[in-house]
Description:
The protein is about 50% helix and about 5% strand.
Amino acid sequence: MAYRKVQQLLGASFHIQDIFDYSYAAYSQTGGFQSPEQRKAANDIMNCKTAKLSFNLSQCPDCGYQKIHYCSCRNRNCPNCQAVNTELWVDQRRAEVINAPYFHVVFTLPHELNPLLYCNQSLLYGLLHQCTSRTLLELCADKKYLGATPGII
């Protein structure tokens, strides 16, 4: 039965909301950790532009034709309703980039720390950003490496 449903999904055009609708309940039962924010985002994505989030009704004053417009969840992680905002944000960031050479630096953590990070995202990502920025500032200030103060975003 499940295989047939997957075939139907793969054979048709579908969205991330369809994937969540089909598999989120089963995933949640596996016992993997989900932060309250992750659960909220998943539920918002599943409910976005459905009757669960209410609706607005448009009606033609001449012929009486009615059209229902379901409300968006407005969750920043929802591709259903945030695509335009995401594009605007990317365009704004592009406008901020100066025409100069730059280096993109990536700091990584061991995969084994992921469960700990998911449980304490605000604290641990904040600490990671503090440590990495201090490291970059210290190394770049050293005349042996660059002897300058970098701009960090």
